[in-house]
Amino acid sequence: MPYKETNQQILDNFISLGYTKEIFIKMTKGLPNLYEYSFEKNITRKFNGLIDLGYSKEEVIKITCSFPMIYSYSMERIKNRFKELMDLGYTKEVVLKMTASLPALFGYNYDGIKEKIDYLNEINLGFVVTENTKQLVQSVELTYARYEFLREIKKEVTQKNYTILFRREISFQKQFNITKQKLLEKYKYKDYLEAKNGRTL
Fold first, then answer.
1. How far apart are CA 153 and CA 150, in angstroms?
2. Which residues, other chains included, contact 107 with Cβ-Cβ below 8 Å and sequence gap of 6+?
């Protein structure tokens, strides 16, 4: 019968990498299977693999705490996503910064990421991708709807006030007296794509 480590031994293993007990507990809530993974063949290999990609030890701990699911991915998948982002025109240093800011980029659908980036570039807000990467959490449908609404009421979105596009729903609704549902119903991203491509999707 194979040897199975106790929960305390598993915790001690993570602590040996630099995690705290509190961080480890938080990670297991997001990925309970952490208790089942081989420490040497999976955890240590991924941890060192991320360092080899260019992250510092502290960044690896922060990334895996924020997005523990990354320990369920193969290094091949992680490296492929890294390359995909670089193929979009970003340098290695920028991709390191982006993914450290929003580790979930490793889990997002590639087409969805590219769509968000393409739209932000179209409205001259491409800098958001690298300077405030966490905003990529918001759906492109909502970003489009808010942008069109603000344009309709003659409120220009600039580099100085762009965060208005990404406000919490309750804050946006309170200021402009319009719900997320009404925005999405009135300003349909799908219609925008159809008009842009000149065909029905």
1. 5
2. 67, 69, 70, 73
- Maximal CA-CA distance, the chain: 71
Q: How far apart are CA 116 and CA 181, in angstroms?
A: 20
Judge contact between 191 and 180, C-beta under 8 A: no
The residue type at 173: Q
pLDDT-derived band at 199 (thresholds 50, 70, 90) equals low
125 neighbors 157 (Cβ within 8 angstroms): yes
Across the chain, mean pLDDT equals 95
How much is the pLDDT for 201?
44
Cβ density class 137-159: b for 16+ within 10 Å, e for less = eeebbbbbbbbbbbeeeeeebee
Cα–Cα distance for residue pair 101/65, rounded to 1 Å: 12
Who wins on pLDDT, 199 or 148? Answer: 148
Predicted pLDDT of residue 50: 98
Determine the Cα–Cα distance for residues 89 and 170; give it in Å rounded to an integer.
Answer: 35
Stated length of the chain: 201
Q: How far apart are CA 83 and CA 59, in angstroms?
A: 19
Q: Is the pLDDT of residue 2 over 80?
A: no
Alpha-carbon Rg for the chain in angstroms? 20
Nearest Cα to 62, choosing from 93, 104, 119, 109?
104
